[in-house]
Amino acid sequence: MEIIPRHLGAKVEEALATSRIVNVVGPRQAGKTTLVRDLLEHERYLTLDDRGVHAAFEQDPQGQIELLAEQRAESDLPIVIDEVQRVPEVALALKAAVDRNTDPGQYILTGSSNIFTTGRALDSLAGRVMTLTLRPLSTAEVARQSPCRLLDALDREPARRLHALPVPEDYRRSEVISLIVRGGFPEIRTLSGRNRIDRYNSYLDSIIERDVADVTEIRKPTALRRLIDQAAARTAQEITVSSLSQHLGVSQPTIQKYLDVLSHLGIIHRLDAWTSSRAKRGIKSPKLHFLDTGCATALRGEDTSSFGPGADPTALGHLLETFVFVEVEKSLPYLNSTWRLYHWRDQRGREVDIVAEAPDRRLALIEVKAASTVDAGDFEHIEWFMQDGPGRSYTTAGVVLYLGDEIVSFGEDQLALPLSVLWSYGE
């Protein structure tokens, strides 16, 4: 299988220059092992998925880390410990090692869950570890392009905004549908038809069997599996715990716990509702996004033929919105400013798919349209939000991403952009 360079590789190397430990987290099969083992220089690679290595670290984590530290004494390269969440006690052993030697770049850890977010592990390595998240492949990575910088462009003055946008790559609607259906998991996206659907289903089963246990005890794995199916069916829709509880016949506390687990493992993202009051954010219903559209379509039993003439346009619209959200979310580590993503809807039904907020009251509004044409009516909610709604006191720009091929201006702060701007930033 061809190895695709990852944008996060440069971030890992930067972190190694300043942090004693770099912790790379992300869902299983997103490419963490390939990144740290095959794309980055290292002194030694160990995986706790290996039974022998796992047993040795479980029995004596302190002794194993001390041995590794001795082996690395004459090297400037890091030691890689893969799937570190299998033995959380490693955190305390690492603390002792990096307190004795404060040099940066000693260890790279990977895991499908982050062991440094709770309890003793968090306390033990505070200030000593930099955590980075690796998602499945972005479309820009698949296209061998630079990270998407759409939000950086929208953050510029109107007169300079167009110059900060790339020339959109040519594409066809069928290619977009293929990107949605294939998803971003390196070993699965290249498979065809039923093989891809079967692999994605097997992938979710393996997460329930192996990774969930590293996060929490699950008493009803079949209920968790049904919740995952519901999440795929409801991607890009607002959800409530009560409705899921009623639909699945599972208590609300259990549904909440399972949603937390799926978020922790990078399977779903609950996109909070934006309000101008920071204190009230997260109170309204979040919008759920399945973090890989290929996985979502597989669980829904869909392939490229599912979105041809006569198909339900709503289904493609929701998947396209999730696709855009995921691409924008993957771009966040590479932008000039720190952006937070939300959705917005008011009681009259006006809504904006993605509200991106940066410091100093700066907003970027993104609407997604699964059509090849766009007109002023597609900016109705964005325009109201900016001029008469909650964004009127913010510095705001709005875009509609659509399946056409022209950049069209609908006012000083409103642009219609071809979807391919997401993967058109050249090297």
Pick out its properties.
427 residues, Rossmann fold, 17 helices, alpha/beta, single chain
Describe this structure as you would to a colleague:
A 6-stranded mixed beta sheet has the order 9-10-11-12-14-13, with helices on both faces. Strand 9 and strand 10 (351-358) form a beta hairpin. It has 2 domains: 8-134, P-loop containing nucleotide triphosphate hydrolases (Rossmann fold, 3-Layer(aba) Sandwich); 140-423, no CATH class. The chain is globular and about 65 Å long. It has 17 helices and 14 strands. It is of the alpha/beta class and 427 residues long. The model has no long low-confidence stretch (mean pLDDT 91). It has helices spanning 8-16, 32-38, 51-59, 61-71, 90-100, 119-124, 139-142, 150-154, 158-161, 173-182, 193-215, 221-233, 241-248, 252-264, 293-299, 313-331, 380-387, and strands at 21-25, 44-47, 79-82, 107-111, 129-133, 237-238, 268-271, 287-290, 340-345, 351-358, 362-368, 395-402, 408-409, 414-418.
**Rg over alpha carbons:** 22 Å
| Envelope shape | globular
- The computed structural class is alpha/beta
Query: Roughly how many Å apart are the termini?
Result: 23 Å
Residues in helices, as a percent range: 25-40%
> Can you count the beta strands?
14
Whole-number mean pLDDT? 91
- Largest sheet report: 6 strands, mixed
Q: Give the strand order of the largest sheet, numbering strands 1, 2, ... along the chain.
A: 9-10-11-12-14-13
Return residue spans where pLDDT drops below 50 for at least 5 consecutive residues: none
Could you say how many structural domains there are in total? 2
Strand coverage percent: 15-25%
**Number of helical segments with 4 or more residues:** 17
